[in-house]
Amino acid sequence: MSPTPYYDRDGISIYCGDCLEVMPQLDVTVDCIITDPPYGINFKYNEYIDSPLGYSEFMQEFLFLAKAKAVNEAPFFVWQAMKNAPNWHEWFPHRFRIFAACKAFSQFLPTPIQYSWDPVIFWGEIPNSPSCYSRDYSEQRTTQFGAGREKISPPCPRPLQQVAYIVSMACNAGALVLDPFLGSGTTLLAAQNEGLRAIGIEISEEYCKVAVDRLRQPSFFSITTNEVPKNERSQAKLI
Q1: How does DSSP classify residue 106?
Q2: Could you tell me the pTM of the whole model?
Q3: Which of 20, 112, 198, 218 maximizes the CB count within 10 A of its CB?
């Protein structure tokens, strides 16, 4: 029996809980998984200890459970930290590729070369025909600071326009999207704007509330991307 959703409206559902516990209970098969999990780098979350200890086992369990809920060859897009690059070959299928989520602003870090884009590991079948509009990078067009920024409480929200770009590439009309690490709800908001169904799982009730508020009150920022025309979508397989 499926757990009771925290939010359920117009094909968009949110479950408040640990995704490793919630996913096995969901009686669904999803068409695409787009998510931004913890990175095991000791980042400070409200309700999760982001320790590197046991992180490899955590990732393997998450991917095993997620794959069990997805259609065969479903597209996966999983945000990662550059620090984890030496381990990607252990966690992800051997045919994985890297999508570059480029930043408008690069945070200064004590490194000789600054990180100016986030790696998103992806694999599976993309339901689009070969197109010059579909590319393995997206540039963030709004700053994360100051005017023009959507003010929400989670510390590292993903830019809506970038997530919408991935959603538009990865999903056909009627697709069901799953985000097991929902955070502030950006994936669900992008799916909602595209007219898709979506499920999000989030361990923090505080972040669940933020996600619900964004879904109920679309703002100026709740726009979809026009980078991938809808008429470019059909069947194509990643190589």
Answers
A1: P
A2: 0.85
A3: 198
